[in-house]
Specification:
It catalyses: N-formyl-L-kynurenine + H2O = L-kynurenine + formate + H(+). Catalyzes the hydrolysis of N-formyl-L-kynurenine to L-kynurenine, the second step in the kynurenine pathway of tryptophan degradation. Keywords: Hydrolase, Metal-binding, Tryptophan catabolism, Zinc. One of its GO terms (biological process) is L-tryptophan catabolic process to kynurenine. The structure is a single chain. By secondary structure, this protein is mainly β. The strands form 3 sheets. The protein has a 9-stranded mixed beta sheet with strand order 1-13-11-5-7-9-10-4-12, covered by helices on one side. It has a two-stranded antiparallel sheet with strand order 2-3. The protein has a single domain (2-7, 47-206), classed as Glucose Oxidase, domain 1, CATH 3.50.30. It has 3 helices and 13 strands, in the order ββββββαββαβαββββ. 10% of the residues lie in helices and 26% in strands.
Amino acid sequence: MEIYDISMMIHQEMPVYKNKEEKRPVLKTMQDFATGHVFESRIQMDMHTGTHVDAPLHMIENGNTIDTLDLRKVVTPCKVIDLTAIKEKITKEDLQSINLQKNDFVLFKTKNSYDDQFNQEFVYLDRSGAQYLTTKGIKGVGIDALGIERSQPGHETHISLMEAGIVILEGLRLKDIDEGEYFLYAAPLFIKGAEAAPTRAILVKMNYENVKV
């Protein structure tokens, strides 16, 4: 069994959306061994910083919150799809040749995974691609960008996916992950009433050749 961490590490200098300073996490030491008998710290961070799951409330008024998410949607088999040849956006045409089945959870590996800093021109999923995914009946989609869409005033990608009940997982790191089938563990923090939550996402690959019966 091989385990791959596909999460972004949380630290103050990490890439954040559009390089906005207010999205940078702040880790503060509240007590150390010079002032007490234990070490304790506190973190302040945006729900959409780093690897995270979006809930419908993020884009839809009165939408479901992250604490209502069915964990079976994010603890599940998944498929990593290599789209590193795409330069700008993922469209319906890019997806039509891929074998997608109902209830699949797909992770899109793009050239974003090779960026060490936030790239304003990151590869994203456009409306046609999102709408195509809804017709396939998938249950979740992940991408190696801090946003699944870019420069869409109406947020068509988010809304199309959310209205279809498709989970959105953003901020993945897939540089060292080969295309193929894995088991995904991507449960977000259990925060009541939140529109998103940070997630520690990992992939597990079973090596059945080494399993003795």
